[in-house]
Design goal:
By secondary structure, this protein is of the alpha+beta class. It has one domain. The chain contains three helices and five strands. A three-stranded antiparallel sheet has the order 3-5-4. Strands 1-2 form a two-stranded antiparallel sheet.
Length: 91
Amino acid sequence: MNGVLYTHGQQSSGLPKGIKKMTEQQAKAMQLIFSAVIESVKAAGSLGAPGGIIYAALMTQGCSLGQFQSLMSALVRTGKLTQEGDLYFAV
């Protein structure tokens, strides 16, 4: 899994300001988070998983609202989840 992290400040990596390549450890952590969210949504079944509940759980681990929104939109955009209002469903 390759990816980028959006950061603040100057970069000396040759990437545009605000963009930093993910380390292997960060990519693995991201995969674990994605998997955990998907499994949690699957557990909610046909009723769907409320976004507010997912965010509350992630927030206790230091996830910001912006990070949550980016995470969930990536999962929807890649077809791992669907969204109907505030509810998320496993595909």
